[in-house]
Amino acid sequence: MSESNPSLLARVAAGDHAAIDACLNQFGNLVWSLARRFTSSHVDAEDAVQEIFIELWSSASRYDSSKASETTFVAMLARRRLIDRLRKSQRQPQMDDLSAVAEFEHPDLPPDVAVMDDAARAAELIRTLKPEQQQVIRLAVYEGHTHQSIADALQIPLGTVKTHLRRGLLKVREAMQKADAESGGGL
User: Which domains occur in the chain, in start order?
Assistant: First the structure.
């Protein structure tokens, strides 16, 4: 497009509020239809659409009309975001699954009590780990940081973060399994 008539995404990148509304009108149906294909529920699709448009606002400046049309740019951005969401949801265990495990392991206790008991035991065992393992587990599990953000914050390699986390969690799991076996309960 010419300089006198900037593209819709260029106007969005410049902070033009009217362009944001126009962008929603022009690409809303496209993004919605993609979101519905990639998600399992109406609510998930709505969340995905919001995430996609937020990403679009922040990355509109990357649009290059010589490489693709605006529609193609939006569709590819939406597709990438939806694939990321799908991968993330497949990696994270569902809370329903965890409560079922707790009920199976401790059938005589209410689910919340069993989970709290296991969490307290795990927290106690974490305190017995090496300080660097404790720190990485605290940041990842309790505070929800990504492996990369932990590596950046602690100024250590990403692989080291993953190693500390994996070894620490394995030690906690082994200790819990050993205690369960000795007490005759659980695993």
Answer: 8-91 (1.10.1740.10), 95-183 (1.10.10.10)
